[in-house]
Each structure stands twice: as C-alpha cells, then as structure tokens.
Amino acid sequence: xxxxxxxxxxxxxxxxxxxxxxxxxxxxxxxxxxxxxxxxxxxxxxxxxxxxxxxxxxxxxxxxxxxxxxxxxxxxxxxxxxxxxxxxxxxxxxxxxxxxxxxxxxxxxxxxxxxxxxxxxxxxxxxxxxxxxxxxxxxxxxxxxxxxxxxxxxx
Length: 155
Fold this sequence. Notes:
The protein has helices spanning 2-13, 26-32, 38-52, 61-72, 86-111, 120-132.
C-alpha cells in the first residue's frame, strides 16, 4: 500500500525512484562480479562510479549495496587468504612439529652419556670435600649435628 502511494506520487512529480544507470542489483553483483571478465568488471566499476556522483539520498538501496560490495567485498586483493580447513592443517602441523621436537630431544638426552658428576660416588666425595673445607658451617653440611643428604641427590 505504501509502495503504491510512493510510486504514484513519484509518477505525478516526474521523479524517478531509482538511479538512472542500469547496474545489476546487489545480489546479482555479489554473485556475478567475481566471475565477470576484467573488462566487464571495469564497466561495472565505471557505472557504479557514475552512480556515486549522484545525490546519495536518491540512490536505491540495491545500488548502495552493490557499491559497498565492489568497494569492500571479498574479491581480487580483498579475497581471504585462509581457505576452509586451513586452520586444522596449521594446528596439526604445529602439533606434529612439537612432537618431532620432543622425540628428537628425548633421543638426544638418552643417547648422551651420563655425566660423571651425577654419580653417587662423585656426590659423596663432594660431601667429604665440603666437610673438609668447612662449607656453610652454621646450617649446612659442616655444621654440628647435620642430618641432611648434602650433595647426594641419587639413591
């Protein structure tokens, strides 16, 4: 009802309700702009640039949507770089890299000879030297009545 009144009043006043340049509606532009050849894309861009020069209050909503899509839409250089499924590939790649690093670290640690300073005899000799040199005489290994293990960490 309101549309009919608006159309009728526009016909009586001689004013058009839509822009004068024939550009596909926004839904058509969004679906077909990416598939168009470069020449036709340039033609659509020039048509839309002519529309942009007009009074924005007289431009239809479809043309405004088409302008927005062509300006900011996901095409050409604005196309997303990440495709569906890429996030899972990145996640699995990171997990695999961490796993390989852990395996290599474990192999390197197990293949290396055990340090001679970690043997129990070395640590007991360290305790003996500490008592001889009177290291930490107040609370440490050289104090009277000391009952700790000292430098011995292995059983």
